[in-house]
Amino acid sequence: MVARMGKRHRAGIGLAALASLAGCSFAPAYHPPVTMTPPAFKEAGPWRPALLASAATRDDWWTVFGDPTLTALEQKVASDNPTLSGALARYDTARGYLGQAKAGLLPQVGADASLTRNRQSDNRPLRGSNQPDIYSADTIEGSFGYELDLWGRVRNSVAAGKAEVQASGDDLAAIRLSLQAELASDYMALRGYDRQAVLLQQTVDAYAKADHLIARRFQAGIVSGIETGRSGAQLDEARAQLADVAASRALTEHAIASLVGTPASSFTLAPSATAFAIPAIPVGVPATLVERRPDIAAAERRMASANAGIGIAKAAFFPAIRLGGSGGFQNTGLPGLLSASNTIWSIGPSTVLSLFDGGRRRAELAVARARWASAGADYRATVLAAFQQVEDNLARSRHLGDEAAAEDDAVRQAASTERLSLNRYSKGAVSYLELFTAQTTALRTRRTLIDLQTRQLQASIGLMRALGGGWHS
């Protein structure tokens, strides 16, 4: 009795020891990296407050521009863009790998049945006189196996898989945001070309009338051939600029078609000379908004995955212990196969430990640690790039705003000069050269202003992208 109790006591101690080991993990304790967030953005400038009612959410940040056509195009990006579809497939792949890793947490159960007719060789070794040469072997058997995750290999595999799924989901969000911003930027460029086309068409019409008038004056001997040459050259130059704008618009329209998953040959956007208002950036955009960027979240999750990978590599230095068993029936024929006398079973643990592998496990551990260092470096680089992108677009928005304000004054002054020169030329007070110069300057300043306003809109889009989708948390 004492001996039996001693065995039970030792068995209990062994089970307790295994239970305590079941919670063991060789992965280093993981702590999310601390982002070195500056107190404020250097290029923020004296922005005016934005009304909450006009602020877009992260899911539909482009609605701040109030354009239904842009909204419809953004929805097609989400549903039809092939790059986004590929990212979604990679996310589903990561989820599949996670399911494989989770399977290791549960017992594996199987069943096997075989009904065979066999013949042994007449010259088989150790042939017995009472052994038949031809016999049947029928077996029905079930089995189970379960790895005792004493060193945390399976649990760390699951943890790494979860982190990879989360990182893949963040990659999907980052690609979606990038495509949305690219579409919005291209759309603003397209509408900028539409505005320039309207301006240039009006200019061509005005120049054509002036050229006709000068041609009549030349025929009447009032002006010289120099003025007709200048007038014709000015008209042709305006027509050339109009054709160049049309070509640029066509290329931009083709780019938008690819973004929304439509062949360029069957995609058309009707011209619209829409002048969009520049979105108001709030005073003191918080630098912490950068932390919500999906690419930063993905980089952090890959650090967590790499951290779990170290635990997986360390667990390989210890024996893999598996508890398994099987049971069923076996007979030399189907009759009586399921009787108690034909019962077979086997149960017990098994262990596998590699004693010499030529340094393979140490190399795998070194690889895991290098992946962790690489993931950490990638995270820091992603954060630095994020702050640079925010500062770049803040600087662009700020300085382009100053430039556009100055150019707007230049447009007004050039327009006034053009009107005065036209009146003076009509009265014969000045030569055509003065009018030519005033008209050329007026057209250049108007086109420059449209270009600056388009670039301001694109800078706002870049800023919203850099902040993870708008600047409203």
From TrEMBL:
It holds the Pfam family OEP. Residues 113-132 are annotated as: Disordered. It is found in: Cell membrane. Residues 1-29 form the signal peptide. GO terms for molecular function: efflux transmembrane transporter activity. InterPro entries: MdtP/NodT-like, OMP_efflux. Keywords: Lipoprotein, Membrane, Palmitate, Signal, Transmembrane, Transmembrane beta strand. GO terms for cellular component: plasma membrane. The keyword Lipoprotein applies. Gene3D superfamilies: Outer membrane efflux proteins (OEP). SUPFAM superfamilies: Outer membrane efflux proteins (OEP). It is a lipid-anchor. Belongs to the outer membrane factor (OMF) (TC 1.B.17) family. NCBIfam families: outer_NodT. This is Efflux transporter outer membrane subunit. It comes from Sphingomonas glacialis.
